[in-house]
Amino acid sequence: MTSASTDAPTRRVSAAGAEFVYRDIGSGDLPPLVGLTHLGVNLDSWDPEVVDPLVEERRVILLGYRGVGGSTGRVRESFDDAADDVIAVIRALGLERVDLLGLSMGGMVAQAVLERAPELVDRVILAGTGPEGGPRLTALTGVMVRSILRGVVTATDPTALLFFTRTAGGRRAAEEYAARLKRRRSDRDAAVTPGVFRAQLRAVAQWGRRTAPSGRFSAPGLILHGDSDRMVPLANVAVLRARFDDAQTRIFPDSGHGVVPQNRRAVTEAARLFLRR
Q1: Residues facing residue 24 across a β-bridge
Q2: How many CB atoms are located within 10 Å of the residue 189 CB?
Q3: What confidence tens digit (pLDDT) does each residue in 220-276 have?
Q4: 60 pairs with which residues across the strands?
Q5: At how many degrees (to 10) do helices 105-116 and 194-209 cross?
Q6: β-sheet bridge partners, residue 14
Q7: Closest alpha carbon to 225 in 204, 245, 200, 253
Q8: Total domains present in the chain
Q9: Rounded to whole angstroms, how far apart are CA atoms 126 and 105?
Q10: Which of the residues 89, 114, 130, 166 has an alpha carbon 20 to 30 A from that of 120?
């Protein structure tokens, strides 16, 4: 099965002394939606059944991080530096205003973009993420390590353990998500190396250790979270919401860290309504 997102070519752009891979899909008069993905994955982790409904209404640009997948350079170990890369790529692509969609770690990078270049961002969607100094973000590494070890012992994909609940619905959602990621057959992004995980986990830990900032985001926000997220606990939502002058929140039941793929239809509907202005 092919679609707009699975058929989109992987492109490259030079910015900030590196080459970044990206996929540019769709068109429209509204500001492009720039997607920033989660920790330890490449562009192929984007769920086609999330991206394709968004592409029906607007241009979507999925960005790779420095040193991850086919992008060159050394992996960033702080989200401020990663945000500077995102800002540089947005400008290198000739974009004046964008909307942002950040998943987990990508949501942390998106917040850093809002802090450093608020003039670039119209609206932001943050899914399964937390603010600087958010509750128990420093424990994320331990959660990941334990789940990976459990996956080895039980011969279970660690993504299923980390991202989805262990209910029947969660197990089914994990299997369906894994199958959807196999739809892209050609021009796939380069594999992610173990060093990427280590560097990005250090960045998350640094983010979690920070003192919560006093400034607020003026861009409207949509915050999406699973009620059973083990990686970024639900308590982060209230703290994150308080950083916005104007934000909507939506909590999904029986959902873990993979709140977006597990609730793809409801999420894309909410995102489209929010981005229509």
Answers
A1: 61
A2: 21
A3: 999 999 999 999 999 999 999 999 999 999 999 999 999 999 999 999 999 999 998
A4: 25, 33
A5: 60
A6: 19
A7: 253
A8: 1
A9: 10
A10: 130
> In 3D, which of 200, 201, 247 has the Cα closest to residue 224?
247
What is the domain range of residue 245? 4-275
Cα 237 to Cα 239: distance, rounded to the nearest angstrom? 5
Helix, coil or strand: residue 35: strand
CATH number of 126's domain: 3.40.50.1820
Q: What angle do CA 151, 155, 159 make, to 5 degrees?
A: 45
- As given in the structure block, the two tokens for residue 132 are 């600087």
CA distance 4 to 198: 32
| pLDDT tens-place string over residues 76-134 | 999 999 999 999 999 999 999 999 999 999 999 999 999 999 999 999 999 999 999 99
pLDDT of residue 151: 59
